[in-house]
């Protein structure tokens, strides 16, 4: 992949949906419940306590016998530091420390003895990074922002006291903004002083289902299973460019004939067949989560999750010109399926306090430095979580969750054979998450 061509920056629209903060593997954001955050998201589909089950297991809504509402906010503090390890782009070291805010709203309304309706509004995908315009990876990324709103109506049907089924529809609207620098050095050594700038913005929506099961064979043991269909986005966008003086019309671009080819230079590229609106089709993976919970005694319960993500669906992403069908670029990701393992405990006391703790191991779908993208890199991570619930009354309670993520150190080695740019860095990432959730029963 090479992003020195401004139209090829449109490829980043697709990249955004497969490169997210170091939270869950690749684009996934699990922060949909501060209550579940406290256990490291263990028992998400089997430990049913509040309205957040609308997202984690709609079938579990049958366990809630009254109208409930949960409103939450998750604050994600990420910091990624990139140190040069042999790049040739003439930039400085890079760092991003953007704050991510993930809001959640869920409501549950029993309709009759067997049917329950739920509604969730959340942000399941997203990222924010800002490296500035002078770091060594600026031709890959400078600023990235993805915001996704998900509206999720769901229904559960209680077959018996032990078994229920759930189904949901997810309407997802995505808005993307991406910026990167362009090498305008005209054959001279790349320098931030001679760069041009590319900015792309794009939107799309998708509708996908989820299907779930809740099974409680005994009063102390429960299981949950949920399948979420991966969305297919046909991402469309336009690119806007601020050209360096060397690339002004007087220099022969864009209104005049392009100058003679000069390695690594925007002005050397003939873009007439590539310029214009572009489109990238992205097929996101299906996910399946299996959960189990067991009550050891009146106070102590243990929970477990195994989540599978079908990342192998994504191998290459092709970007085409919508006007003439020209192949703008292909991105080879070579993703592999991943697993996430989580184990947690809850301890309910005779007081209003319930305590939680958990640990999780989360795999990344791609760790090869050749394919890792710096818009926010992805690596294996370990979750360490704690949290609590405090019941002010039978009608109102508060959840607080905290997680510290230990992200593996890793490397990027992006080599652009067309321009000769080499981005070779070592990086480390730190992530802390705090979530606050309020719950009402009526």
Overall, the morphology is elongated
Number of strands: 21
Distance between the termini: 54 Å
CATH architecture: Beta Barrel
Can you count the helices? 3
The CATH class is Mainly Beta
Average of per-residue pLDDT values: 83
What is the domain tally?
A: 1
Name of the CATH superfamily? Outer membrane protein transport protein (OMPP1/FadL/TodX)
Would you tell me which CATH topology applies?
Porin
Protein model, in words:
The protein is mainly beta. The chain has a single domain, classed as Porin, CATH 2.40.160. The protein is built from 3 helices and 21 strands. It has helices at residues 11-16, 34-37, 53-56, and strands at residues 68-84, 94-96, 99-110, 115-122, 126-130, 143-158, 163-182, 196-215, 221-228, 232-242, 278-283, 287-295, 300-309, 316-321, 327-332, 338-348, 353-362, 381-391, 396-407, 410-415, 422-441. A 14-stranded antiparallel beta barrel has the order 1-3-4-6-7-8-9-12-13-16-17-18-19-21. A hairpin with a 4-residue loop joins strand 6 (143-158) and strand 7 (163-182). The longest helix is centred in the N-terminal third of the chain and has 6 residues, at 11-16. The termini are far apart. Residues 1-22, 249-266 and 268-272 have low confidence and may be disordered.
Write a concise synopsis of the structure shown:
This protein is mainly beta. 3% of the residues lie in helices and 51% in strands.
Short descriptors:
442 residues; mainly beta; Porin; 14-stranded antiparallel barrel
């Amino acid at each position: 992949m090479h992003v020195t061509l401004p139209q090829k920056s449109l490829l980043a629209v697709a990249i955004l949906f497969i490169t997210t903060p170091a939270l869950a593997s690749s684009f996934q954001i699990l922060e949909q419940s501060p209550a579940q955050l406290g256990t490291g998201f263990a028992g998400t589909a089997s430990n049913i306590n509040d309205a957040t089950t609308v997202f984690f297991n709609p079938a579990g809504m049958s366990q809630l016998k009254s109208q409930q509402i949960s409103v939450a906010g998750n604050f994600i503090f990420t910091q990624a530091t990139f140190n040069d390890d042999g790049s040739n782009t003439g930039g400085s070291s890079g760092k991003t420390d953007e704050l991510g805010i993930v809001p959640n709203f869920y409501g549950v309304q029993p309709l009759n003895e067997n049917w329950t309706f739920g509604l969730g509004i959340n942000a399941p995908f997203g990222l924010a990074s800002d490296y500035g315009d002078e770091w060594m990876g600026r031709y890959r990324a400078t600023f990235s922002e993805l915001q996704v709103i998900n509206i999720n109506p769901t229904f559960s049907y209680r077959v018996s006291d032990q078994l229920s089924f759930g189904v949901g529809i997810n309407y997802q609207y995505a808005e993307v903004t991406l910026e990167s620098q362009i090498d305008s050095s005209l054959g001279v050594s790349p320098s931030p002083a001679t760069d041009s700038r590319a900015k792309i913005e794009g939107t799309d929506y998708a509708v996908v289902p989820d299907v779930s099961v809740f099974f409680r064979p005994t009063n102390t043991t429960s299981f949950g299973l949920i399948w979420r269909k991966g969305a297919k986005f046909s991402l469309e966008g336009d690119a806007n460019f601020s050209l360096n003086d060397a690339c002004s019309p007087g220099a022969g671009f864009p209104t005049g004939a392009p100058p003679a080819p000069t390695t690594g230079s925007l002005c050397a590229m003939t873009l007439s067949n590539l310029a214009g609106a572009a489109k990238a089709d992205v097929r996101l993976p299906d996910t399946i989560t299996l959960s189990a919970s067991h009550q050891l005694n009146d106070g102590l319960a243990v929970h477990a999750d195994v989540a599978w993500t079908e990342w192998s669906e994504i191998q290459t992403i092709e970007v085409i010109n919508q006007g003439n069908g020209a192949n703008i670029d292909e991105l080879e990701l070579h993703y592999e399926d991943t697993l996430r393992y989580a184990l947690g405990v809850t301890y309910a006391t005779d007081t209003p306090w319930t305590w939680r703790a958990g640990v999780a191991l989360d795999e990344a779908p791609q760790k090869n430095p050749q394919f890792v993208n710096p818009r926010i890199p992805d690596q294996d991570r370990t979750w360490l979580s704690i949290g609590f619930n405090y019941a002010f009354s039978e009608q109102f309670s508060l959840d607080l969750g905290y997680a510290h993520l230990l992200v593996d150190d890793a490397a990027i080695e992006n080599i652009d054979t067309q321009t000769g740019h080499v981005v070779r860095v070592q990086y480390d990432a730190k992530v802390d998450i705090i979530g606050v959730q309020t719950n009402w029963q009526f």
